[in-house]
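Email to the structure team, subject: Patatin-like phospholipase family protein model.

Hi all, the expression group asked for a predicted structure before they design truncation constructs. Nothing fancy, just the tokens so they can compare against earlier work. One-line instruction: predict Patatin-like phospholipase family protein, return tokens.
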Amino acid sequence: MVVAIEDLGLTTVFDAVYGVSGGALNGAWLLCGRAAQVMDTWWNREVMRGVIAPRRALRGRPVVDTDYLVNTVYVDLVPMDFAAILGNSITFHPIATDAESGLAVDLAPLIHDESTLRLALRSSTGIPLLAGPPVHLAGRRFMDGGLAEMVPVRTALAQGATHAVVLRTRRPGEDLRPPGNMQFHIIRRYLKRHAAGAIPAWRNRYAVAQDEEKLLATHPRVRQIRPPRTAPPCPGRPVGPDDSRPRWTWAERRPAPP
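Reply from the structure team: attached below.
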């Protein structure tokens, strides 16, 4: 969707870009004018092996390495134009969760140069447990913004947005589901050790997501763009019992060898 906005030359119709987690990364690529350039990276096997490696958990290292993603991939392999983002008249607002308070925080006021911009991207994408401990920025500690605000429309509206176009990755009816007991207790134990203030945000995440869905569906100044119901589900994403489409797996989506 971000690539389509870029290709159609519509980026300049926006005054601000808000993003949470992967949405913050996509927003940054849009603002530097290189969204199409980075698209292939997401299924480049060699790159993604460096970013996501479950075996690292056996050595006590992050499964999702945001440091490698932002400071190596986005610098050496597929360069992100950080200067273009910093100098853009369209303001960039990555959202993260404060590890002490558990509240959603707009990191824009904390971004002053390339170094703080990189830290802000890592802060917004710091998935609890999988991405390691909270990221330090401006004397504070931050984690994935999705803990406190799955879709940053509330922050945008509170800051005076008159209209919002929301790009969604989930199909209609494919909303967040409450965690199972094991997942809940594992993440809670992790947060108790590294970010106790974020435990209420984790506990209330499902209820907050439901409220966000109601806001997105009913607010007169908000328009959503999301995949149609007929679109294939993302690998690993649950589908409803009435969904008769094929359950695609990563193996099925890979091209056959020559």
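Residues 150 and 164 are 15 Å apart (CA to CA). The longest strand covers residues 91-98. Ping us if the truncation boundaries need rechecking.
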